[in-house]
Amino acid sequence: MLPFSYVRAGDAGTAIALVRASPDSAFLAGGTTEVDLVRQDVLRPGLLVDINDLPLDLIEDLPDGGLRIGALARMSDVARAPGVIERFPVISQALVLGASAQLRNMASMGGNLCQRVRCSYFRDAARAIGIDDFFLLPGDTPQREHPLEHGELITAIEVPGAPVARRSVYLKFRDRQSYEFALASVAAAVRIEDGTVTEVRLALGGVGTRPWRARRAEAALLGRPATGASLAEAARQELAAATPHPMNAFKVELAQRAIVRALTTLTDGDR
Ligand SMILES: Cc1cc2nc3c(=O)[nH]c(=O)nc-3n(C[C@H](O)[C@H](O)[C@H](O)COP(=O)(O)OP(=O)(O)OC[C@H]3O[C@@H](n4cnc5c(N)ncnc54)[C@H](O)[C@@H]3O)c2cc1C
Predict the structure, then answer these.
(1) Which domains does the chain have, with CATH numbers?
(2) Cα 225 to ligand 1 centroid, rounded to whole Å
(3) Which helix (H) or strand (E) holds 68?
(4) What are 88-115's pLDDT values in tens digits?
(5) Protein residue with least CA distance to atom 21, ligand 1
(6) Residue nearest to atom 44 of ligand 1 (CA)
(7) Predicted structure pTM score
(8) Which of 25, 56, 110, 152 has its CB surrounded by the most CB atoms within 10 Å?
C-alpha cells in the first residue's frame, strides 16, 4: 500500500497551484487511468488533486457549428450529446467503442487525452494547443507523451465546425468486440461532389505511438473519383513509409484495409 495525500479542489486556480507546488502530484478526474497506474506501481504520486468539483463538464455548441467540450464531460455524455451525434458522428462512435460502459461513465474527456501512450484545449483559459501538436512522437524524450507542463490543467476541448464531419464514420478492429483497445482503428469523413472527392479527413489509431493523421492518403484522394482502385491506392500510399516490427507487421495491411472499408462505407451510394 502506497501512502499518498488526497485533496478535492474547489476551483481551477487552487487545483493548479496545488499540483504545481509539488512535483510528485497529479490531477485526478475519473481515475480510470491514474488509479490503475498507481495500483500497478507504475505511478507513485505523493498528492492527488481531485478536480471533479470544477465546473468543467458542459458540452456547448460554438457559433461556427463546432463544439466546446468541458474537460470533465464524461465520455458517455459526450457520445450521446445530440450535437455530437448529428454533426460529429465519428466522435460519438469512437467514444462508444472505447473501454466499457462503466468506464465511459467515469472517464473524462480531459483524462482521455492524457491517458498514457494510448488533447485541443485551453491552458488557464489563455493558451490553446492544436490537436496535431498535442501528441508527441517519442524522439529523444519518449517519457513525454504530450506537451503539458506539470500542473497545466485542461479545461475544455474545442472541436471546430466541420460540415464534412456530418458524413463520418469510426471503425475499430480489435481482438474481441468490447472492452479492448484497437489493433487498428480509422476515423474518416468525406465529401463527394459530382463523383469526385472534394474534402476528406482520415486518421488512424493503434498503429503508432500517437493518433496518426493519414495525410498522404488524403492528398492521394483529393480531386479523384472514389473508386475501389483509388481508395486502395490511397491506402497503399499512406502505409508505404510504415516501418513495422516483426510482431506488428500485420498492422500495415490491416490499416490499409481499414481505410478502404471506412471510405467504402461512406461513399457506397456515390459509386
Ligand atoms: C480497461 C480499460 C479499457 C480502455 N479502453 C479504451 C479505449 O478503447 N479507448 C480509449 O480511448 N481509452 C480507453 N481506455 C482509457 C480511458 O478512456 C481513460 O482511462 C480515461 O478516458 C481517462 O479519463 P479519467 O477521467 O479517468 O482520467 P484520470 O485517470 O483521472 O487521469 C488520467 C491522466 O490525465 C490527467 N488529467 C485528467 N484530467 C486532466 C485535465 N483536465 N487537465 C490535465 N490533466 C488531466 C491526470 O493527472 C492523469 O495523468 C481504457 C481504460 C481501461 C481501464
Answers:
(1) 163-271 (3.30.390.50)
(2) 39
(3) strand 67-70
(4) 999 999 999 998 999 999 999 999 999 8
(5) 112
(6) 153
(7) 0.82
(8) 110
